[in-house]
Amino acid sequence: MRKPTDPERLYLDFDGFFASCEQFAHPHLRGKPVGVVPFAGVGTTCVIACSREAKKRGVSNVMMIKDALRICPDLILQPQNPDLYRRAHNALLSEIAMVIPIDAVKSIDELTCRLDPSQQQHPLAVGDAIKARLLKLVGPWIKCSIGYAANRQLAKMACKAGKPDGNMLWHPRDMPGPLLALRLADVPGIGKNILHRLWAAGVVGMDDLLATQPKQMRALWGNVTGERLWYALHGYDVQPPVSERGMYGHGRVMPPDHRSLAAVKPISRLLLVKAARRMRRDGWSASRLHLWLGMWEDSWSGSVDMAAISDDPGILDALEQLWGKARRALPPRPVIARLGVTLGELSRTDRRQLDLLTNDEPIRQRLEKVTEAIDHLNRRYGRTVVSVGPWTPPPGDHAGGKISYTRIPRAEDFY
Prior knowledge:
Monomer. Pfam families: IMS, IMS_C. The chain contains 14 helices and 14 strands. The protein has helices at residues 17-25, 52-56, 65-71, 82-97, 117-121, 123-137, 152-161, 192-200, 206-210, 214-221, 224-233, 261-281, 312-329, 361-381, and strands at residues 9-14, 34-37, 46-47, 49-50, 63-64, 76-79, 104-107, 110-114, 144-149, 167-169, 247-253, 284-295, 299-309, 336-348. Strand 12 (284-295) and strand 13 form a beta hairpin. Helix 1 (17-25) crosses helix 4 (82-97).
């Protein structure tokens, strides 16, 4: 495996992206502590993102609103606007691509680039050019941190070490010096469970981690991920494995006045249809549907098998079966705070295996044509004008278009 002698990777992370976008779009929020929240007028949820000003006051992401207001009484609660973040993401990527080609978009606010040989000699100049372009064309409200290193893993860690608004270079000749100042928990890929495994094995600091062997790391992780991390931390050119799509789904935190069975069910239908649209758009069919309902002190989940379908009527019929199971299992008048629907066990629609026992091919083809016609009409008019059954958007809207950090929605995800 090759070990670069120059920094070959750039990793960019926008600082407080959601809150920065709100400050960019709304001048009255600039320079003030801002907390982005899921819904307007609801004080029982959490702050999903906060501005630099709020962070300086002690507010953090995923902090309960009541706790955030106690720390920062003048915190401005701004309802989320996912479509704004999507449009900002696309515009910012266009500007960055004028400076350096983008190799991979990792999330709504993170991306990575490859440095060409000339850029490897002066990597900080690339970041300076990106920051100068964004300052000129966007203004000072949306800022980013940038890291450079031999591979993507180290570049991401350098980026994080330079936050906020940093331009941090970890040159291969200086390694592993910068790593020794970090905690194990600062390493992407080391979560709570892995951390406890490392402690149990006597690995309590970065120097211990770097002194391990590749096969030892593989054993601690229980798979090849640990071995890959070892090579990445030691500066090798580790390429990320190609990942395959495993599921399509959506989740939703329910507003306080929409936590009954009667209120949650139509929203589950809407979320499922939006997930199915995305699945069809990518050419997949699903053989399993999963429904999850989260209550304050308990949860319920169930799944049902399907015959590798992608049409809305068939998928919604499967959802009805799951709701029948849920009604029989849940206590009377449950309070459902969270909801999730997932389409899994995917297979390519154009490679569907016929089931000789059910012989559902004629029915499936007819339902797929109906669904295709519905999708065409909705795309043409830019909104949901036709649906199978009721279409009941929840309060706060954005159902199915919510930013999940790991998925960047398209315009059609918002209708």
